[in-house]
Amino acid sequence: MYICVCNALSEGTVRTLAREGLSFEEIQAVTGCSNCCGSCRELAESVVAECRGIPVISNTLPALQMT
Ligand code: FES
To answer: Is the CB of residue 40 below 6 angstroms from any atom belonging to ligand 1?
Structure first.
């Protein structure tokens, strides 16, 4: 699956680079990820964080309802 369609960048490539220790910004510099339309940025950052063991805080999850 492509994470970044604009740059034909696969999820596997992003995961490999992240597991080798590259940050999102480093992956972006090497691959061009999110340098065009930018629509892939949130997903790419989440994948990198997951691979590097960084907790992911997403604003796309529904808020908990406190009753
Ligand atoms: S999909 Fe990644 S920059 Fe457009």
So the answer is: yes
14 lines ligand 1 (CB under 6 A): no
**Is the confidence at residue 61, as pLDDT, over 90?**
no
pTM, to two decimals: 0.80
**What is the phi/psi pair of residue 46, to 5°?**
-65, -40
What is the distance in A from the centroid of ligand 1 to the CA of 57?
A: 21
Domain range annotation of the chain = 2-51
pLDDT attached to residue 54: 82
**What would be the CATH architecture of the domain defined by 2-51?**
Orthogonal Bundle (1.10)
**Nearest Cα to Cα of residue 30 among 9, 46, 47, 54:** 9
